[in-house]
Amino acid sequence: MDSQQNSSLNSMFLTVKTNLEKIESLNIPATSFEYQELVSKSLYLLEKCEESVEKLALFSSNETIEDYQTSTLEYLLIPILKSNLLKRKIENRLSLLEQSKDEVYYHKITNGIKFEPVEQRKIKIDRFKAERELKNRIENLENKIHITQQQSLKKLDNENSENNESDEFDILDEVDDMDFLQRDHVVLLLALKAKLAIEELISIKSEVDLLSKIQNHSSFDDERNRSGGSDNRTEKRGKDVSWKLDTHSYTSGPVDFNTRNVGGKLLDSKGKPIQTFVITNNRTLIKEGVFKPGHSLPTKTLDDFIEEEFARGNVITGGGKEPEPKEDPDDNDEEAINAETMKKREWDDYTDDVRKGSGNTTNKG
């Protein structure tokens, strides 16, 4: 029974990997039916894979990575693959992002130590370099595995029907070498996915915060439109006339336009002031309204940004061939000197014969 479940698990996982390769290679919008259907099918298969892994009890907290077989290690990729597919879904975006993040690592990231922008930038660059190194090592291993497989197949084809004992031992050694290569490949792939998962979790956190703010803002606007429409119109009418000196009848007393402590009628029928009033300076109030807590300050300089782009490999360097510098004529080359002299004489003759501006006939008024 366990062997049947294991083979079923292996076939489902292979199907998921094939679907992921199709998804990456599709040149269609992520909102299309074909794209979303393939994502949904892959998610369903991954959930079945998770159930099979739990039933077979393949992993235990008491064991280390050396205790597992190479074929079993690959199933450790199921959570990150599922998270990747959940991010590709479009309906109920906020709830899908909540499912996509791993709570343990998520809280460690969000509630962890706060770094300065310079330290964050250094950590990000170091993580990017480590990811690039892992990708190069994985690519080299994949090429090595492919070459080893081709050599093994070629050797099997060249063997005669009469095999001796030494040939059998050679085949066993090649199988062991292939197993070591595949194991190293899976371990490096797990390390790369772990680093990519950190970037995914940081991206998810930013998107969750943004979607939560949008959702709260939209619900607040809906509630305000339902309950406070008339009050808003009254307040707007008051603001429209707030610049006028005399809009109502006031009681006696000075005027402070910052606190709106207005008293008495300010102007008579001829427009002359009746009482003294104070117009305070709004410069301080305007200054205090700048750079509020919600204002985003720059976290890096332009030089830091350019350096980071170079580290990411986003800057294209080089270009076409530079034009060859024009050689100065040799004083001893009489033919070149005569040709240059004749060219200048022809130009002088042309300027003598053709009057300046004679060709401009279209703009004459």
From TrEMBL:
Identify the Gene3D superfamilies for this entry. Answer: TAP42-like family (1.25.40.540)
Which GO biological process annotations does it have?
regulation of dephosphorylation; regulation of signal transduction
| GO molecular function annotation | protein phosphatase 2A binding
Region called Disordered, residue ranges = 219-240, 314-365
Biased region (Acidic residues) positions are: 327-337
Basic and acidic residues bias locations: 341-356
One cellular component term (GO) for this entry is: cytosol
Q: Which InterPro entries match?
A: TAP42/TAP46-like_sf, TAP46-like
Q: Which PANTHER family match?
A: IMMUNOGLOBULIN-BINDING PROTEIN 1
The molecule here is called TAP42-like protein
- The organism encoding this protein is Smittium angustum
List the lineage, top down: Eukaryota, Fungi, Fungi incertae sedis, Zoopagomycota, Kickxellomycotina
